[in-house]
Write a structure and sequence with these properties.
With 422 residues, this protein is mostly helical. Helices cover 79% and strands 0% of the residues. The chain has two domains: 197 residues, MFS general substrate transporter like domains (Growth Hormone, Chain: A), CATH 1.20.1250.20; 194 residues, MFS general substrate transporter like domains (Growth Hormone, Chain: A, Up-down Bundle), CATH 1.20.1250. Helix 1 packs antiparallel against helix 4 and helix 10 packs antiparallel against helix 11.
């Protein structure tokens, strides 16, 4: 149940904010923790890299299905119930993957990956909606802070995996312990994290609020696909997912293959990208408040374009390094800005976030095979430059993220963008 904005104590808002910060951090831990140990999982399953990639595509497909229906689910049952089911389900999924790694069962691994995709994605919509509501109550841009917490969580997950690998802890044991611990903490935090989220919409309530026109949660979710602004925000998220996701998958390989350096330097390159992105996510909120979403999104796209060009065309490693920094900076704020824009109207936030996020899932499914083919043809470093096409598209539709005039803040006033012209 949502809380009336006029009676929300500051303590409740603060508690919701920090509870969500931890939830985002744990999301990063669980996403990166097991992916960092894919070499061990591949060895335990005794499969090739191509087979493992096919298995992971099943999880990506599950994520897409979950994102597509999450708008209707959150609208009907609310963020709190959706998160509870997602937390429990994701804990089960991670334990199934752990069991598959421990027993060397490929079919069990596929089941676990599918469940992981379904449950992880089911949490993505409600936590972003809840974070946007906190931002609206605070009255200034803070959504990038939550995404920075995710980045920190991803780094922590990678560190835990590195430590367990060095200590020769079986991947199944690591995953099971992390899964149970994370599930318990998530369940404890669900209530304070979602206290500001919109209440679920019952079918009879929707009918009474719109006489003669029954607006069920499913119809509300489907109608969002007909909104040009929501679809164009989805294109911003598609570009963001391509930029950030492709760096995670290909940057290290591109550095090692492109400049013929050691693997450790490839890891340093990706670490630099993550640090640049995280720093801008923490500091970029002041830029959004001062210059507005539109200007910051355009500047982010230009930074990403310059970074990709420098990285892709630099003749030496040390010249490519500044390109990685610019690319990471440019990848930092597009996702939280788009999520905030899709959540301007709390009543339609679930459907709009779901629709916009589906573009991100499509990017994550299509990018690995597309970039893999290009990498074989022209090399990974030059293949990554194709992301520039999506960034140009993101810059061209940046005006769509401007706050909607009709979207009212929790205090009853319209939040104004510092750059209304864009």
């Amino acid at each position: 149940m949502s809380t009336d904005a006029g009676t929300v104590p500051q303590l409740v808002v603060t508690r919701a904010r920090w509870s969500l910060m931890v939830v985002f951090l744990l999301y990063g831990v669980t996403q990166m923790g097991w992916l960092s140990r894919l070499p061990s999982i591949r060895a335990s399953l005794d499969v090739s890299s191509a087979q493992l990639g096919a298995f992971l595509m099943v999880g990506a497909a599950g994520s897409l299905v979950s994102i597509l229906v999450s708008g209707a689910v959150v609208t009907r049952y609310g963020s709190r119930a959706t998160l509870v089911v997602g937390a429990v389900g994701n804990g089960v999924a991670q334990c199934v993957i752990a069991a598959a790694a421990g027993t060397g069962s490929a079919p069990l691994f596929v089941v676990g990956v599918l469940l992981n995709g379904l449950t992880s994605a089911s949490m993505y919509t409600p936590i972003n909606i809840s974070a946007a509501r906190v931002e609206q109550h605070v009255g200034r841009a803070i959504l990038p802070h939550f995404h920075a917490a995710f980045s920190i969580g991803a780094a922590l997950g990678a560190l835990v995996s590195a430590g367990c690998s060095a200590a020769q802890v079986p991947v199944g044991v690591q995953m099971a312990v992390v899964a149970v611990t994370v599930a318990v903490v998530r369940l404890v935090l669900v209530s304070p994290a979602t206290v500001l989220s919109p209440a679920p919409v019952r079918g009879d309530e929707a009918s009474r609020s719109s006489p003669g026109r029954r607006r069920t949660p499913l119809r509300t979710a489907l109608q969002a696909w007909a909104e040009p602004r929501t679809v164009l925000i989805g294109l911003v998220l598609l570009a963001s997912a391509l930029s950030e996701g492709s760096a995670g998958q290909w940057l290290s390989i591109a550095v090692v293959d492109g400049f013929h350096v050691r693997e450790a330097l490839g890891a340093v390159a990706y670490g630099t990208f993550v640090v640049a992105m995280t720093v801008v996510r923490f500091g970029g909120t002041h830029l959004i408040d001062r210059y507005g979403r539109v200007a910051v999104l355009r500047a982010s796209g230009i930074s990403g374009l310059l970074g990709l060009a420098v990285f892709g065309l630099a003749p030496t490693w040390w010249l490519a390094f500044p390109g990685i920094v610019l690319w990471g900076m440019g990848s930092a704020l597009a996702n939280p800005i788009a999520m905030a824009a899709a959540s301007d109207d709390p009543a339609r936030a679930a459907a709009r976030v779901s629709v916009a996020s589906s573009f991100m899932s499509v990017a994550l499914i299509s990018a690995p095979p597309m970039l893999g083919l290009l990498a074989d043809a022209v090399g990974a470093r030059h293949a990554l430059m194709v992301i520039a096409i999506a960034l140009v598209l993101s810059v061209s539709v940046a005006g769509q993220v401007r706050p909607q005039p009709a979207a009212e803040s929790p205090t009853g006033t319209t939040r104004k963008d510092p750059d209304p012209v864009g």
